[in-house]
């Protein structure tokens, strides 16, 4: 009887842990990401075609499948804001901007705290921003 009770407790603990892990990895890129690097050629060429210098750039993916893409100047003033919707399926993400005619379907993967959008030698890298930094959608 004791063995059955402990076995049931163990199974319940494992199932709970797996369910929590599944929820954590369902959309692991939800949150704020700071631009860190890109290859010369990448899937975001249309977004980056503005040749002005934006030393800070943030992508915030929300759980309601919307995003905000913000560009800041050297004085940390918000210069440009793009919004849209996103959807992920397997290893692909579909990013659709609403302010410009641009839709992107690309692969994504993680290296440590970095989110890589694209593949091989055509990618953009965003690093996880501090958890308390979250830009509210306007």
Key words describing this protein structure:
138 residues, alpha+beta, Lipocalin, eight-stranded antiparallel beta barrel, 1 helix, disordered C terminus
Q: Could you give a short description of this structure?
A:
This protein is α+β, with helices and mostly antiparallel strands. It contains one helix and eight strands; from the N terminus they run H-E-E-E-E-E-E-E-E. It has an eight-stranded antiparallel beta barrel with strand order 1-2-3-4-5-6-7-8.
Structural class: alpha+beta
- Label the CATH architecture: Beta Barrel
Rg of Cα set: 19 Å
Order of adjacent strands in the largest pleated sheet: 1-2-3-4-5-6-7-8
Tell me the name of the CATH class.
Mainly Beta
Q: Count helical runs.
A: 1
Instruction: Count the E strands.
Output: 8
Tell me the count of domains. 1
What would you call the shape? globular
- Could you name the CATH topology? Lipocalin
The SSE string, one letter per element, is: HEEEEEEEE
Helix content class:
10-25%
Termini separation comes to: 58 Å
Kindly report the average pLDDT value. Answer: 74
Q: Which percent band covers the strand fraction?
A: 35-45%
Explain what the structure shows.
The protein is α+β, with helices and mostly antiparallel strands. It has a single domain (27-128), classed as Lipocalin. Helices cover 18% and strands 44% of the residues. It is built from one helix and eight strands; from the N terminus they run H-E-E-E-E-E-E-E-E. The protein has one helix spanning 2-26; strands spanning 31-38, 56-61, 66-72, 78-89, 92-97, 103-111, 114-119, 122-128. Strands 1-2-3-4-5-6-7-8 form an eight-stranded antiparallel β-barrel. A hairpin with a 5-residue loop joins strand 5 (92-97) and strand 6 (103-111). It is globular and about 40 Å long. The termini are far apart. Residues 4-24 and 132-138 have low confidence and may be disordered.
């Amino acid at each position: 009887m004791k063995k059955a009770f402990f076995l049931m407790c163990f199974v319940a603990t494992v199932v709970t842990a797996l369910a929590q892990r599944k929820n954590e990895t369902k959309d692991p890129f939800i949150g704020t990401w700071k631009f860190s690097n890109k290859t010369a050629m990448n899937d975001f060429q249309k977004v980056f075609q503005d040749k002005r210098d934006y030393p800070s750039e943030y992508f915030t993916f929300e759980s309601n499948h919307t995003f905000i893409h913000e560009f800041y100047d050297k004085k940390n003033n918000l210069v440009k804001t793009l919004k849209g919707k996103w959807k992920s399926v397997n290893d692909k993400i579909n990013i659709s901007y609403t302010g410009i005619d641009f839709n992107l379907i690309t692969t994504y993967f993680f290296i440590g705290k970095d989110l890589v959008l694209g593949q091989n030698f055509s990618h953009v890298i965003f690093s996880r921003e501090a958890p308390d930094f979250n830009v509210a959608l306007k």
